[in-house]
Structures are given as C-alpha cells and as structure tokens.
Amino acid sequence: MNRLKYLFTGVLALLLASCFEIHEQIDIKPDGNGNLTINTDMSKLLEAMQSYLGQEEMEKQLPGKNLDTTVMMKTLMDSAKDVTPENKELVKDGAVHMKLNMEQKIFKSDIHIPFTSQANLEKLYNSMNNQSLGFTQLFKGMTGKTDSAGSDNNMPDMNQFNAIYDFKSHDGLISRKLNEQKWKDLQQIPQFSQMKDAGNMGISIPYTLTINLPRPVKKVDNILAKLSPDKKQVVMQYNLIEVFTHPEKFEYTINY
C-alpha cells in the first residue's frame, strides 16, 4: 500500500512538474559582478491542477485567484527566521515578481538577484540549491498557500535534486559538478525509485541555461553547450527530468 502511495505521489508530482518551463540566466560582467535571473512559467500547471485536483482543492492550493506583484527580496527575508544573516545579505537587493491569473491561466514567477562578485555568486547559487534561503516557503506565502493538516509533506520537491551539485565560480571559470555522496543520499529517499520509474514515461520539463561571460570561452566540456559567434555566451538546453537517470548531463565546466 505504501509503495502504491509513493508511486501515485511520484507520478502526480512529475505530471504537474511537466507543466513547468524554466529559463535561468547568469550574467557576469568584467569586474565580476552581475545578475542571476530565473524565470519559471507555470501557466500550464493551472489547467493540470484543475484536472487532477478539482475546483475545490484548487482553491485551497491557490486561494488568491489573481496576483501581479513585485516584492523586494529584503522584505521577504525580514520574516524568514531560518535564514542566516549572511544569506540574507546575499539576496537583499533581489526582487521576485509573481503573476497569477486564474481566468487567463497565467502563472509565472521571475527571480532577479544581483551579485557583487563571483565569490558571492558561488555562495548564492549553492545556498539556493541546498534550500537554505527558504524560497519554497516564501513563495507559498506570496500565493496565499498554507499547509493544511491533510497535506502530504512527503510530496517530492524538484528543488531537492538541485542540491546534488556543487557550483563553483571565479574569474576565468564557472562550473557545476555532481556531488557523488549527495547523489547516493538522494537515491535512498523512499520516493526516489518511484519518481525515477515515472520519469521514464516520456515527461519533459524544458530547462534552458544561458551564461553571459565577460570574455570568450576557451573550453566547455558539456556537449549540449552552444556558443554565440563571439563565444561570450553559452546556452544549454536540457530535459530536467533526466536528472533521475543521467545527472551527469547537468554537469559543466567553462573556462574563459
């Protein structure tokens, strides 16, 4: 019975996740500062949620039918009790824009965070990946979503899978490498095998990474990477769901 529950949970989570489209962009300027931008289009999620959850449960999950707001990250972090002062400092100048329109079936989030150095970019990226910034709970608050007694706290979170990578950035190099121990640990959670099986259903979560660099690329080791004519821009497009079977596909090292 528990296996069936986890399988259903995994399949449902991936079916809903397949309604996401993610665009991530890292802009690094010559002096080392820059911007991290993550645009997530969840518009198809609204229709899927209506089909799988029904109208009543839909209203519980997203009680606010319309939302179009930009909130400074500093404001969000002021109420975040579990975020360290160092991490609050990393994102204090960032902003989050959320747009939700139930009738037009629009659901988008845009995160924009400037960084003052590549060392801070590395800290920022790794803090986001290990969820120590608490973004998931903050976004639930922005949309009016609160956990209920009947919620399934075992529902797998796609953000869990970002934590299996180590990100490094300094002048001349930017990389993302699989952490073998974290990968092994992830495979031990009860939902992993079910999520992996469900991932073989042909589900696709489009993910595009764009990195703009201050100098031309000398070498990049990911075969999916495409360079602009001046070799200062790297674009990689993935199916995010493949992280369950081929996590090495998300690795890259760029020398410039």
- Mass-distribution shape: globular
Overall SS class: alpha+beta
Sketch the topology as an H/E string, one letter per element: HEEHEHHEEHHEEHHEEEEE
Fraction of residues in helix: 25-40%
Radius of gyration: 19 Å
Low-confidence stretches: 1-12, 146-156
Approximately how much beta-strand content do the residues carry?
25-35%
Number of separate helices: 8
Query: What's the total number of strands?
Result: 12
**CA(first)-CA(last) distance:** 53 Å
Question: What does this protein structure show overall?
Answer:
The chain is of the alpha+beta class and about 260 residues long. The chain has 2 domains: about 1-20 and about 160-255, no CATH class; about 30-145, no CATH class. The protein is about 30% helix and about 30% strand. The strands form 2 sheets. An 8-stranded mixed β-sheet has the order 3-4-5-2-1-8-11-10. Strands 6-7-12-9 form a 4-stranded antiparallel β-sheet. Helix 1 crosses helix 2 (about 45-60) and helix 1 (about 1-15) packs across helix 8 (about 190-200). It is globular, with a radius of gyration of 19 Å. Mean pLDDT is about 80; it is low at about 1-10 and about 145-155.
